[in-house]
Amino acid sequence: MRCLQSGEPLGRAVEMVPSSESVATSDCSASGHSCLGGQIGNKKPDTGNIEEAESSLRESGVLNYEEARALLGRYEYQKGNLVAALHVFEGIDIVSVTPKIKDALSKSRERRKRYSQNNDEQQMSVHAVALLLEAVFLKAKSLQVLGRFKEAAQSCKVILDIVESSLPEGLPDNFGAECKLQETLSKAVELLPELWKLADCQREAILSYRRALLHEWNLDAETIAKIQKEFALFLLYSGGEAMPPDLRSQMDGSFVPRNNIEEAILLLMILLRKVTLNRIEWDPSILDHLSFALSVSGDLMILANQLEELLPGTIHRKERFYALALCYYGAGKNVEALDLLRKLLSNREDPRHVPSLLMASKICCENFSVTKDPGVSFARMALENLDGRCNQLENLANFLLGVSLSAYSKLAISDAERVKRQSEALHTLETACKLSRMEDPVVLYHLSLEYAEQRKLDAALHYAKCIVKLEVGSNVKGWLLLSRVLSAQKRFLDAESIINAALDQTGKWDQGDLLRTKAKLQIAQGQLKSAIETYTQLLAVLQVHSKSFGSRNKLFKDKRDQIRNLEVEVWHDLAYVYISLSQWRDAEACLSKSRAIKLYSSTRCHAIGKMYEAKGLYKEALKAFRDALDIDPDHVPSLISTAMVLRHCSDQSNPAVRSFLMDALRHDRFCASAWYNLGLLHKAYGTESAFVEGAECFQAAHSLEESEPVEPFR
Hints:
Elements: H1 2-6, H2 23-30, H3 48-60, H4 65-79, H5 82-90, H6 94-114, H7 126-145, H8 149-166, H9 181-198, H10 202-214, H11 221-237, H12 260-276, H13 284-297, H14 300-309, H15 317-330, H16 334-344, H17 354-366, H18 368-371, H19 376-386, H20 391-409, H21 415-435, H22 441-453, H23 457-470, H24 476-488, H25 492-505, H26 512-524, H27 528-549, H28 557-580, H29 584-597, H30 602-615, H31 618-631, H32 636-649, H33 655-667, H34 672-685, H35 688-706
Helix pairs in contact: 2-5, 3-7, 4-5, 4-7, 5-7, 6-7, 6-8, 7-8, 7-9, 8-9, 9-10, 10-11, 11-12, 12-13, 14-15, 15-16, 16-17, 17-19, 17-20, 19-20, 20-21, 21-22, 22-23, 22-24, 23-24, 24-25, 24-26, 25-26, 26-27, 26-28, 27-28, 28-29, 28-30, 29-30, 30-31, 30-32, 31-32, 32-33, 32-34, 33-34, ...
């Protein structure tokens, strides 16, 4: 005891069995500290400390002051006396022994290379090094339990600094295995990032993670995989943005992550590759986190490739198909996603898989023009398989069935069949609305939309108001639908007031569609100059949009395309206004701007045709309308305009005129202009039956015009 307190070396004859009243306890009591008993649990003291002490004594002939304190500190730590153990560890002057530790580690590596056992008498033994580094590690653990995280991290960092500076090329295999040196080092490498996180030092935590993965610590595969996963999760969910790694050691052309998400994706993909190579066990959470990261970054096709590369049996075949379908759907490849879902829903796989049925119905609803399948059968089958077991999914299935039936009604040949499907669509959407207790804005939106398209405007207005109230005006779609319903009721001032209120509550980024609707309302009221000013304001907003999203990654590709399409349509709207004012040069300038953004556009060709028609150049107009139909054979305005020019230039009863008008009505039965021109055509026939049919057409045109919004509801 006196030797320890005085710092003198202990002789060989010192008894190494620690007494119950250790020097740590004495020091702790003397300094006024209270010991924390039982915090580590009722662990039995490790008798390995005696063996290590004997090994150190045999190699160096003496147990110095620091080694003795390391030994006694570990004994107190194992008993659970953390404050006492910490008091003993703090008595170790690690700074003074660091040069000896470094010298011992570096020369130990050289001896391993030469396979020589010659040793300097003054050199510290590997056992002593292991004992001292373990003391530093246990000091860090004690500080962690006591809540002193930053001090714990700084203490733990000392171990890595010493080993890294001593062995810059990395540790050799099985280095220090006989004295637990490798075990201590592995634990320190794994603990340091956690301590920095507990200390709320994000930058230091990230640097320590990178240090753990880039330096050769001789860690086993499972430990490395654990560190990689923890680092990836920290990058994804910590909420901070770390500086990119400086990987100068990599070869030219190698991928270097630019931000947190890219670095996390890289780590998770490395882990998936290790699973594929059978280097580590399969962990389903790796795929979950990678799915999130790639979804956020917009790289869903990369996720699809990763799913396809997984070995058979890693995940269930059904789960793989469904995940791949989600990836393709998110990447905009709806046909491929639907093909995968149909494969999954085949009799060979699982025809009763409800998530796949719902998703297939959703894809069909959203891409009806491409899939040619409204998705009614998928939604009905989902309802049958649910059988009332889940109210939320049943609500979703009813909603999708209603939307599907609405799309399906457009395929009806007879009016009776169309009315029947529309009635069923309304009933199903109302059921979904009741199941959601009028609290689902998406269901309310489509219910209001269906009422509006069936020209039941009072009911449509009621549900549109419910949407705005439920969402507290946070969604532009609700405001737009409400203003369009009001415009269909010819309440233009009220509709414009709604748009102005929406503009006050909406940020600049979301005002594009609102400003365009406002301009359309001003045109409907004959305020053409005000409309031009509104369009000019909208174009300024869109230019700021384009510059903002121009340099972003593919996550914003859809947004960029949406902005470009809206800008093209705004130039077309302005061109129509200038044509109505006979300002040809301004109209041509607008059309030139449109062409610079989008080379082929049926609407631009139609606007050019209308300009020629206004000038009396009917042949040029007819050519422009035909160009529009070459680009889009279903372009309703061009079909009607072609019929009007043909009727003006040729025989009033030209069969081609009727053909174009009927084609227009086949695509849009609610087009008042098509019904009106069809009525004129019947009137030109001059027969009694033609007069009757013409009167019906005029009546339909008048009824539709009375309830026509300034913009389509959908």
